[in-house]
Design a protein that fits this description.
Blueprint (H helix, E strand, L loop, with lengths): L1 H28 L3 H33 L2 H32 L9 H16 L5 H7 L4 H28 L1 H37 L1
Helix pairs in contact: 2-3, 2-4, 2-7, 3-7, 4-6
C-alpha cells in the first residue's frame, strides 16, 4: 500500500513538473495579447476586403432572387467564414511561435507574421482561379504541376528575402508597425460586423 502511494506521489510530482515546464514554455514562446491583437488586425483586413468584394459582385443576383432576410443570411455566412479564416491564420502563427526557436519567430512575431501573411495571401490568389489556369494550358496536368512547383519555389524565395530583410532593416519594422496602427480602426469595424452577422446567423438557425 505504501509502495503504491509512493509511486502515485512520484507520478504526481513528475506531472506537476511537466505541467510547470509546459506553462513556462508557453509563457516564453506565446506573444502578448497586444502582439496577438496587432497581428489579428493585419490578418482581418485583406480577408474581409476580399470576401466583401466577392459578395458585392454576387449581391445583385441575390437581391433579384431572394428576400432581404435571405441576403442578410448569406452575408452572415460570409462574415462567419471570414472570422473563422482569421482565427485559423492566427492559430497557425501562434503554433509557429511555440514550435520554432524563439529568436527565429517569437522575437519578430508581429512584423514577421504580418509579412508572411501578406505574402501568403497574395500568393494564394491565383489558386482561386484554377479553372481558368487549367483552361489556358489545355488541361495539361504536367505543365500545371510544374507551374505549381515554380509558384511554391517563388513563395519560399520571397519569404526568405523578406524575412532576412526584416532583421536588417529596422525602418521596415517601423513601417509595418505604423501601418498596423493606421488599419486598426477599419479592421476593428470588420470584426465588429462579424459578431453582428454571426448573431444574425444564430437567430436564423434558432428561429
Amino acid at each position: 500500500m505504501r509502495a503504491n502511494f509512493t509511486r502515485w506521489k512520484a507520478t504526481r510530482l513528475l506531472a506537476d513538473k511537466l505541467q510547470f515546464a509546459l506553462m513556462e514554455l508557453l509563457r516564453q514562446r506565446l506573444p502578448s495579447r497586444q502582439e496577438a491583437a496587432a497581428l489579428i488586425m493585419v490578418i482581418a483586413l485583406p480577408i474581409h476586403i476580399r470576401a466583401w468584394l466577392i459578395f458585392l459582385h454576387e449581391a445583385p443576383g441575390y437581391i433579384l432572387r431572394m428576400t432581404l432576410w435571405d441576403v442578410a443570411g448569406i452575408c452572415a455566412y460570409v462574415q462567419f467564414t471570414t472570422f473563422l479564416e482569421t482565427a485559423i491564420f492566427l492559430v497557425g502563427f501562434l503554433f509557429l511561435s511555440i514550435t520554432l526557436p524563439e529568436k527565429f519567430f517569437r522575437t519578430y512575431f508581429v512584423p514577421q507574421g504580418s509579412l508572411l501573411f501578406i505574402l501568403f495571401f497574395f500568393w494564394l490568389l491565383p489558386f482561386h482561379n484554377q479553372y481558368q489556369v487549367l483552361a489556358r494550358i489545355g488541361w495539361d496536368l504536367t505543365i500545371y504541376a510544374k507551374l505549381v512547383a515554380a509558384w511554391f519555389g517563388l513563395f519560399a524565395l520571397l519569404a526568405a528575402v523578406f524575412l532576412i530583410g526584416l532583421r536588417r532593416l529596422p525602418r521596415l519594422v517601423g513601417f509595418i508597425q505604423s501601418s498596423i496602427r493606421r488599419i486598426t480602426p477599419l479592421s476593428i469595424t470588420y470584426l465588429a460586423a462579424d459578431l453582428i452577422f454571426i448573431l444574425i446567423l444564430a437567430v436564423r438557425y434558432l428561429g
